[in-house]
Amino acid sequence: METTTGLRERKKAETRQAIHKATMRLAVERGLDHVTVDDIVAAADISRRTFSNYFASKEDALLYGEEERIRSLVRAVRERPPGEPGWQALRGAVREMLARMGEPDREWAVRTSLTKRHPSLLARQLANHAALERELVQAISERDSGRAGTDDPAADLKARIMAAAFLAALRIATHVWIEEQEARPLSEIMDQALDEMARPFR
Predict the structure, then answer these.
(1) How far apart are CA 135 and CA 137, in angstroms?
(2) H or E stretch including 90?
(3) In this structure, what DSSP letter does residue 44 have?
(4) Per-domain residue ranges for the chain?
(5) Superfamily of the domain at 2-58
(6) 143: part of which helix (H) or strand (E)?
(7) What region does 66 belong to: left with phi over 0, alpha with psi -120 to 50, or beta?
(8) Cβ-defined contacts of 69-78 (< 8 Å, 24+)
(9) Nearest to residue 23, comparing CAs of 32, 12, 15, 33?
(10) CATH 3.40.50.150 given to domain 63-198
């Protein structure tokens, strides 16, 4: 039973990834505004019903890879060793995620560039990042307070600032990486950005 379930889940993941790849390829070739769900269905060699089983829209399909990374990052933060301070847990989590998933490729850079040019994608990405920030605040609060739902306003403010600063550093590092046309590993630029963010402003 476990083998059958595992195989089924793996096939679902492969189908989801194939749809995402087809959407990305068409968006790069034609521009997202000129891509329809029917185009994606034909390119991925699936039925319209299959597409609908996995994604609600072409925007969902395009941003699937980014959302997977978001889920992986939150999971990695929650799985860091107990007692590790929040900032160290965030940094350790992003290093762990990059080590496990590998450095982003050209496709990831293209997708990030696409979101800047399409309002529908940018709105969805902003919503994703807001949700990620909320989850990171919760993870930091639980870690630093030793319990969920702390009522300490100072601790809550610290967790909010820490999560926002962390995500801002990652966003800046990603933009620099794209502007440099991936001349350096993203992990190197992220470490540099996080080092700068951790310095007190005077």
Answers:
(1) 5
(2) helix 86-101
(3) H
(4) 2-58, 63-198
(5) Homeodomain-like (1.10.10.60)
(6) helix 119-145
(7) alpha
(8) 69/97, 69/101, 70/128, 70/131, 70/132, 72/97, 72/100, 72/101, 73/97, 73/132, 74/132, 74/135, 74/136, 74/139, 77/136, 77/139, 77/140, 78/139
(9) 32
(10) no
Question: Which residue bears the tokens 């909010």?
Answer: 160
> Can you read off the two tokens belonging to residue 144?
């630093």
Q: Which pLDDT score is estimated for 4? A: 67
**Structure tokens belonging to residue 8:** 């089924």
Q: What's the average pLDDT block by block, 10 residues per block, for the chain (202 residues)?
A: 73 92 87 92 95 93 83 89 90 89 72 70 82 90 64 86 93 88 88 92 66
Residue 77: both structure tokens together: 């933060």
Phi, psi of 39 (to 5 degrees): -60, -45
Instruction: Fill in the amino acid letter for 192.
Output: Q
Return the amino acid letter for 48. Answer: R
